[in-house]
Structures are given as C-alpha cells and as structure tokens.
Amino acid sequence: MSDQNATTPRVYIARHGETEWTINGRCTGKSEITLTAKGMKQVQGTKEVLVGSGKLIDPAKFAHIFVSPRQRAQSTLDLLLSDAEKKALVEEGKITTTEDIAEWDYGEYEGLVPKEIRASRKEMGLDKEKSWNIWVDGCEGGESAAQVQQRLDKLIHQIHELQQPHMDGSSAADVLLVAHGHILRAFAKRWLKYPMDFSFSMMMEPGAIGVLSYAHHDISEPAILIGMGFLHDVDKEEKLNGQ
C-alpha cells in the first residue's frame, strides 16, 4: 500500500479473547462463555500496543463499531476502549450491537469439537463421499453457509455506505468489528468477494486484530492489508535518552 493509499478507510476485525471453549476447540455460537483471565490479558495487550490516540487504531477515527451481542465480544470491546472513548462513541451513535456479526449458529454442533461433529454426521449417514466442511455443509439445526453469507453481505453493504464518501482520505472513516473466529474469517472471504466455499486458509488468534481496506481508493477493490510499517519517533527517543 502506497503512502497515498494509507489514508484509505480501514475495517479492523477484532476477535474476542480466550474462553474455556476456545482452549479445547469447542464450537461456540450462542453459548455465553466468558473470557478467561488470560483472554482478558490478551485483549488488554492488544489495546496497549494498537489502540488509542495516535496509534494504529485511533477511536477518534471511527465512523462506526459493529459488535456481536455475545458477552465475550461485548467484554472484548469494553477492554479495547477506555470508558471515556466508549462513552463518546455511544453518545455519537457510533456503536451498534448486531446479530449480523454474531458467530456462526452451530445448531446441533454447539459445544462439540470437529472430531465429534464428524462422528455424529457419520452416524446419521452423512458425508459418505467427503468429510464435513462447514463452508459447504453448514450446521444441522443451525446456519447454512448461504445464510451466513446473506447477513455478512448486508453488513458489508452498510460499511460501504459509511466509507464510500471518504474514499479520498480527506476524513477518517474507519470501522471496527468485534466478533468471533469463524464469522470474522467468513467476513474476510465475503469482503474479498470470494464464495463461502472458496479454499482460503486463515488463522486468527484470540484477542487478535486484522486489517481490511481498499486498493487504489476504490470501493470496488476490497483488499486485505497483509503488512504495514510504523514510523519511529526519533524525537521521543531522544527525549527519553536525555532524561
């Protein structure tokens, strides 16, 4: 991304911190599982490095925040923002809690690990020719990939409407999503206009932040920002060394 493109609006995707179920790999959709002590520290560490005035993620530059209704996501947002920052954003109507970015509804697979899901489906006579793939098969009693795509596409349309007037970088219009591992990976696929079953391996640790944007200041060219540089504050270093 050129220096010029660095002013293009960004979409930051934040995964909630660790829970007991992320530790053992259980599918966690609608269940209300709280953050562990480590999960809270993960988010606090992310905030310390990346979030704040003059940092990569500057709350003053937010056009909007969309957060999942699940408590682990709500707690993560509370840890990412100071009380004053959140209060100001709430007063400006810039925080929306929405099911559009809630975790995939796992239905009958809630609380199970993938190995258990595959064994259950085999007992039901499913997957005789291929192994279960959530991106293709969805979840029994829960959401299909098409249903997830529908709500994500709706959200992406909202984000485009927020950011389109600011594509020239003349004013800040960043968006923050605070949600869950599976749905954020699905969001990244749809952001890039890939079908849900497109083979695109992604990893996102608990408490992590990802960055999406647009190439060439063009809303029709969504992109993933896979790397970025940071300016070294020489003046600040010299002041510290002089103390």
What is the gist of this entry?
This protein has 243 residues and is α/β, with parallel strands linked by helices. The protein has helices spanning 20-24, 37-50, 71-80, 83-91, 114-123, 134-137, 145-163, 181-191, 234-242; strands at residues 11-15, 62-67, 95-97, 174-179, 209-214, 222-224.
Task: Describe the model.
With 243 residues, this protein is of the alpha/beta class. Helices cover 37% and strands 12% of the residues. The chain is built from 9 helices and 6 strands. It has helices spanning 20-24, 37-50, 71-80, 83-91, 114-123, 134-137, 145-163, 181-191, 234-242, and strands spanning 11-15, 62-67, 95-97, 174-179, 209-214, 222-224. A 6-stranded mixed β-sheet has the order 3-2-4-1-5-6. α2 (37-50) packs parallel to α3 and α7 packs across α8 (181-191).
Key structural traits:
243 residues; alpha/beta; six-stranded mixed β-sheet; 6 strands; 12% strand; globular
Topology record:
Blueprint: E1 11-15, H1 20-24, H2 37-50, E2 62-67, H3 71-80, H4 83-91, E3 95-97, H5 114-123, H6 134-137, H7 145-163, E4 174-179, H8 181-191, E5 209-214, E6 222-224, H9 234-242
Give helix and strand order, one letter per element, not per position.
EHHEHHEHHHEHEEH
Structural classification = alpha/beta
Query: What portion of the residues fall into strands of 2 or more residues?
Result: 5-15%
What's the quaternary structure here?
single chain
Mean pLDDT: 91
Distance between the termini: 37 Å
Q: What gross morphology would you assign?
A: globular
Helix share bin:
25-40%
Low-confidence stretches: none
Largest sheet: 6 strands, mixed
Provide the gyration radius in Å: 19 Å
